[in-house]
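We both want to read discrete structure tokens more fluently, so let's practise on a single case. Would you write everything just below, so we can both look at the same thing?
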Amino acid sequence: MKRFHVHLHVDDLNRNIAFYSRLFAAEPTRVESDYAKWMLDDPRVNFAISTRGHGTGIDHLGIQAEDDNELAELKLRAQAADRALFDEGATVCCYAKSEKHWVTDPQGLAWEHYRTMDASKIFGQGRDQVSQQVQGLATKAAEQLGRPAGACCAR
């Protein structure tokens, strides 16, 4: 069963961990010096916060698949949405080893579809390159709408 994913940039990790722990009535399942994650079952969501990136607010949204078939289905859906797709493949991101791809909605909001394979001791490799690729998708989305690309979630 798939799980909805939300990743926020926050300015103060500890203050936000305290807030979201009370809001969700649950402690995070993972905490690092720059990152925290809650794997909630009700509602079924992977909610992550980090101090990485620029500014505060939504970094990206996504759907976490549990197996290769679900991930393949999500990729077909993303391709059918007639948007540019960035297939990142096997990667390390947010202290997890994953297989993933990215697409942006018509407003340029980044969506990732991914399957987590294992934990990682590092936040991620090549995040700048991925951010540039996803920002490129957002720029293409803006061009398709005939408007200038704005600052979005692909940081």
Q: What stands out?
A: Residues 127-145 form the longest helix (19 residues). The helical segments are 13-24, 68-80, 127-145.
